[in-house]
Design goal:
CATH topology of the largest domain in chain B: Cytochrome-c3 Hydrogenase, chain B
CATH class of the largest domain in chain B: Mainly Alpha
Largest interface: A-B, 30 and 32 residues
CATH superfamily of the largest domain in chain B: Cytochrome-c3 Hydrogenase, chain B
Number of domains of chain B: 2
Number of strands of chain A: 0
Number of strands of chain B: 16
Oligomer: heterodimer
Radius of gyration of chain A: 19 Å
Distance between the termini of chain A: 46 Å
Chain lengths: 305, 505
C-alpha cells in the first residue's frame, strides 16, 4: 500500500519539478517566468488537441511516444521511494531497468527515423552516440555499487543493513558518483550544457529535433515520459544523499522531495551560468563523468591499500 | 585607371561625362582596379536607346569612388572568373534583371527568381508561372557518407524566409548554398513609377531594421539631384538616428548570440536594453524604427532641448548597464569556447569576396564608409578601430561590442557640442537635375549601403539601384560554414545577421 502510494505521489508530482527549473532560469535572467504549474497546463493543452501524422510515416511512428512513456513508467516501478519496498524487485533488476530506458529511447529514435526527415536523422544519430557514452558511466556506477554492497537489485542498494549512501561508510566515494550521475542526468534529459531544451534551432538540437513531427496527445506522452525520466534520475541522486529509513514515515517524504527540489534548482542554476558546449566537446563532458566513477571504482578494488 | 571618372559621394554628375568605353577596355580597367585593393560598390545594367543593346555601369571604390560605363548586347565576358569573385552576384543580378548573359560565369544561377525587365530570353530558362523560387538544381556532393540537409524557406521562429542547402559528411558541412528571393517585391522597378513624396516611405521599407540607413541614402540622392542643402541641426539628428539604429541592432544581436549558445541571462538583459534604444528612436522621431524622421531636405522632427535631455538622461543610465552585460557575456568562458574559432573566414577570403561592415572589419578589412566617404556629421567625428580581427564569431561579436561603445561616444559628442536647431522640412516635390547620375553611400549598421539614381532628360528617375550590405556578405556566411559543424550554423548565421528582404528587394 505504502509503495503504491509513494509511486502515485511521484507520478502526480513529476511534472511540477521542470516548472521549478523554468522559474530558476527566469529568476536568473531577471524575468518572472511561467507559472509553476506550466507543465500541467501544457499536458492538458496537448491532450485536448488532435495528432497529425505524415502520410509517409508508418505504424512505428505512433509507437515512439507510447513505448517511451511506458519505459519511463516501468523504470519507476523498480524504484524504492524513500526507502519503501518497490512494487517490482528481483535480482539483476538494475540491468533490466536501464535497458528499459534504453528501449524507450530506441523507439523514439525509430519513430524519428520513420519520418525520413534529415533533421530527425541527425538528431537521432547524436542522441544515440551520446547516450551510448552515458551508458558506460551508468554501468561503471553499477559495478561500483556491486563492489560496495554485492547486490544487483535497485531496491537492495538503498535498503537493508548497509544502504549505499553518502552518510554511510565509503560515502566519500559517492561524491564522485553523485557528480557523475548529475552529468548523466543533464545528458540523458537533454539539458544545458549538452542540449538546449529551449532552442527553436533544429540544426543544433539533439532530443527536441527527434520529436518535431509529433503533435497533440503523442507529444503529451513524450513530454510526460521525459518528466518521469528526469524525475527518476533526480530521485536516484537524492537516494544516494540520504539514508531513508522506512520507520521515519512522513519525514522521509519531506526530505526526499526537498532533495529532489534542490537537484532541480541546481539544474536551473547550471543552465543559467553556462553556455552550451560545442557539439564535438559533448563526448568529453560525458566521458568526464565516466572517468570520475571509474576512479571511485578503482578505489574500491583495494589497489592502494 | 585613367578611364575611370572620380565621383563624390552624394554629388551628381552629368551622364554625358561618365566614360563610355568599349567592353574590352571596361573589362580590363575593372579587372586591374579590383586587383589592387579595389572593391565593387555597384555594378548594374540599364536600358539604352537601341533595342537589344544595354548599358552597364560600374561604381568602384578604393579610397575614392569611381564610375565607368559600357554598352553590350545580350552577352558579355564574365569578370567573375577572370578578374574577381567580387563581381559574382552582380553579374548574376544583371543576367536576371536584363537577360544579359555573362559568358564564362562559373555559377550562373538566378538571384531572386523573377522574369527579366527587358523581355529578352530568360538566361536561366525558368518558367516563372511556377510560383516556387528555388526550382533549381543545387550544387551537390556525392559519396556514401554524404547527406543533404535542406532548411527553410519556412523556419522555426519568426525570421525571414530563405532556403539553405547543406552538403554534409556527418556533422561536418562541406558546402552551404543559400537561395534567397522569397521576398522579392520589385522595389527598384517600383521607385521610378512613384511620385516623389512616396519614395522615402518605400526606402524605409526596403529592410525594416535599416529604416534610417536606406532612407538616408535615398534622401541624400534626391538632395544631390535637387540641389538641396541640409541644415547642420538636421544633419545632427540624422547622424544620431543612424547611430541609434546601429546600437539597437548590435545590442539585439549580441543578445541573440547569447541566446543561441543557451546562455540566457545576457540574452534577457540585452533584449531589454535594445528596447530602451528603440524607445530613444521614438523620442527622436515618434517611431521606434525611425520611420518618418528623414525626408529630402532635412528631418521632419528637429531635436529640441526636451529630446536632447531625455536622450542624455537615458544614456547616462544605460551605459554602465551595457558595460556590465557585455562583460557578463564576453567573460563567460563557456561562451568564449563557443565563439572562438567558429565560422572563421580568412582575411584573404574576405578581401576576395569584398565583405563589408562588421563582417569585413572582423576579418581585418578596416573599411568604414563613415570614415572613407563621410556624409552628414561624420567628417568631424572620430573613427573606430578594431582590435580583434580573426574572422570568427568571436571577432564579429567583439567588433560589434566595440562599435556599440564607439556609437555611444559619437552620440554623446553630438549631443554635447552641437546646436541642433533646425526647421522641420516640408514634404514637397523637387525638380531633379536631368541626365544625371548620383551615387550615395552610407555606413548602415550592417555595412556599406549604396543607392544609385539615374535621371532621364526630363529629370525623371530612369533607373534606381539599391545595394544592401547583405548583397556582399551572404557569400561570407556560406564560406564561414565550410568544414564547420552543422550545429554551429545558427550561431554563425546570427553573428552576421544578414537581411533577407534587403537582399531580395
Amino acid at each position: 500500500m505504502e509503495s503504491t502510494l509513494s509511486l502515485a505521489i511521484a507520478l502526480v508530482t513529476a511534472p511540477l519539478f521542470p516548472g521549478i527549473i523554468l522559474k530558476v532560469k527566469a529568476f536568473m535572467a531577471g524575468k518572472k517566468g511561467p507559472p509553476l504549474l506550466i507543465k500541467y497546463f501544457t499536458l492538458f493543452k496537448l491532450l485536448r488537441k488532435g495528432s497529425v501524422y505524415s502520410e509517409s510515416s508508418s505504424f512505428i511512428f505512433p509507437l515512439g511516444p507510447t513505448v517511451s512513456l511506458a519505459a519511463a513508467l516501468m523504470a519507476l516501478l523498480f524504484f524504492p521511494f524513500c526507502g519503501a519496498a518497490p512494487l517490482v524487485s528481483f535480482h539483476g533488476d538494475v540491468i533490466v531497468l536501464f535497458y528499459l530506458l534504453a528501449m524507450g529511447r530506441f523507439f523514439t529514435v525509430l519513430a524519428a527515423l520513420d519520418t525520413a526527415s534529415p533533421f530527425e536523422g541527425m538528431g537521432a544519430a547524436r542522441e544515440v552516440f551520446f547516450s551510448t557514452l552515458a551508458e558506460v558511466t551508468i554501468f561503471t556506477v553499477l559495478i561500483l555499487f556491486y563492489r560496495l554492497n554485492s547486490s544487483l537489485s535497485f531496491a537492495e542498494y538503498f535498503r537493508g543493513e548497509s544502504p549505499i549512501c553518502l552518510l554511510n561508510t565509503s560515502g566519500a566515494l559517492l561524491l564522485f558518483v553523485i557528480v557523475s550521475l548529475f552529468m548523466v542526468l543533464l545528458t540523458e534529459n537533454s539539458r544545458v550544457p549538452v542540449d538546449d531544451p529551449a532552442t527553436h534551432l533544429e540544426l543544433t538540437m539533439i532530443h527536441e529535433v527527434m520529436i518535431l513531427d509529433h503533435s497533440g496527445p503523442d507529444l503529451a506522452l513524450i513530454e510526460l515520459g521525459s518528466f518521469y525520466k528526469l524525475f527518476f534520475y533526480a530521485a536516484f541522486i537524492s537516494q544516494l544523499c540520504y539514508p531513508f529509513q522506512p520507520a521515519d514515515g512522513p519525514l522521509n517524504s519531506l526530505i526526499f522531495y526537498g532533495l529532489i527540489t534542490l537537484i532541480y534548482v541546481t539544474v536551473g542554476i547550471t543552465e543559467s551560468i553556462m553556455a552550451r558546449l560545442k557539439m564535438n566537446s559533448v563526448p568529453q563532458f560525458i566521458l568526464t563523468s565516466f572517468a570520475l566513477v571509474f576512479f571511485a571504482a578503482i578505489l574500491t578494488m583495494g589497489v592502494f591499500q | 585607371m585613367d578611364k575611370l571618372l572620380q565621383l563624390k559621394n552624394g554629388r551628381p554628375v552629368e551622364r554625358s561625362i561618365i566614360p563610355q568605353v568599349p567592353y574590352g577596355i571596361f573589362f580590363k580597367t575593372l579587372a586591374n582596379f579590383v586587383a589592387n585593393e579595389g572593391f565593387v560598390v555597384q555594378f548594374f545594367a540599364y536600358g539604352s536607346e537601341t533595342k537589344g543593346r544595354y548599358r552597364l555601369l560600374a561604381v568602384v571604390r578604393n579610397t575614392e569612388l569611381y564610375v565607368i560605363g559600357t554598352e553590350v548586347g545580350t552577352s558579355f565576358q564574365s569578370l567573375t572568373r577572370a578578374a574577381s569573385e567580387k563581381f559574382h552576384l552582380f553579374e548574376r543580378e544583371i543576367a536576371e534583371q536584363y537577360g544579359i548573359r555573362p559568358e564564362g560565369h562559373p555559377w550562373l544561377k538566378m538571384v531572386r527568381y523573377h522574369p527579366n525587365y527587358s523581355g529578352e530570353a530568360d538566361v536561366f530558362a525558368n518558367d516563372y508561372q511556377q510560383p516556387i523560387p528555388g526550382n533549381y538544381p543545387y550544387f551537390q556532393v556525392s559519396g556514401e557518407a554524404i547527406h543533404e540537409v535542406a532548411v527553410g524557406p519556412v523556419h522555426a521562429g519568426i525570421i525571414e524566409p530563405g532556403h539553405f542547402r547543406f552538403q554534409c559528411a556527418g556533422e561536418e558541412v562541406l558546402h552551404l548554398e543559400i537561395q534567397l528571393g522569397y521576398q522579392h517585391r520589385g522595389i527598384e522597378r517600383l521607385i521610378p513609377t512613384l511620385p516623389q513624396k512616396r519614395l522615402p516611405l518605400i526606402a524605409e521599407s526596403i529592410a525594416g531594421d535599416t529604416t534610417i540607413g536606406h532612407n538616408l541614402c535615398l534622401c541624400q540622392a534626391l538632395e544631390g539631384l535637387a540641389g538641396l542643402s541640409v541644415s547642420p541641426g538636421a544633419a545632427v539628428v540624422r547622424t544620431i538616428a543612424l547611430e541609434l539604429e546601429r546600437l539597437c541592432n548590435h545590442i539585439g544581436d549580441l543578445g541573440a548570440l547569447s541566446q543561441d549558445v543557451a546562455f540566457t541571462p545576457p540574452a534577457a538583459y540585452f533584449g531589454r536594453i535594445r528596447g530602451d534604444f528603440l524607445n530613444l528612436l521614438q523620442v527622436l522621431s515618434g517611431n521606434r524604427f525611425g520611420k518618418g524622421l528623414i525626408r529630402p531636405g532635412g528631418v521632419c522632427y528637429p531635436m529640441a532641448e526636451e529630446q536632447r535631455g531625455l536622450i542624455l538622461d537615458k544614456l547616462s543610465e544605460i551605459i554602465p548597464e551595457i558595460e556590465h552585460v557585455c562583460d557578463l557575456l564576453f567573460s563567460a568562458h563557456t561562451v568564449q569556447a563557443r565563439f572562438e574559432h567558429t565560422g572563421t573566414v580568412s582575411s584573404e577570403m574576405a578581401r576576395e569576396l569584398g565583405l563589408v561592415g562588421y563582417a569585413g572589419r572582423a576579418c581585418g578589412l578596416p573599411y568604414d564608409a563613415r570614415v572613407v566617404f563621410p556624409t552628414e556629421c561624420y567628417r568631424q567625428l572620430p573613427g573606430n578601430c578594431n582590435q580583434l580581427t580573426r574572422g570568427d564569431v568571436n571577432s564579429r561579436a567583439t567588433v560589434r561590442r566595440e562599435e556599440i561603445s564607439h556609437s555611444l561616444d559619437l552620440i554623446q559628442l553630438l549631443l554635447d557640442q552641437r546646436a541642433t536647431e533646425a526647421v522641420p522640412v516640408k514634404i514637397e516635390e523637387h525638380g531633379l537635375a536631368p541626365n544625371s547620375l548620383v551615387v550615395t553611400i552610407n555606413e548602415g549598421w550592417r555595412g556599406e549601403l549604396s543607392h544609385c539614381l539615374l535621371t532621364d532628360d526630363q529629370g525623371r528617375i530612369e533607373r534606381y539601384k539599391i545595394k544592401d550590405p547583405s548583397f556582399h556578405n551572404w557569400t561570407g556566411l556560406a564560406m564561414s560554414l565550410r568544414n564547420q559543424e552543422i550545429s554551429d550554423f545558427p550561431l554563425c548565421n546570427k553573428s552576421y545577421n544578414l537581411s533577407y528582404c534587403g537582399f531580395d528587394l
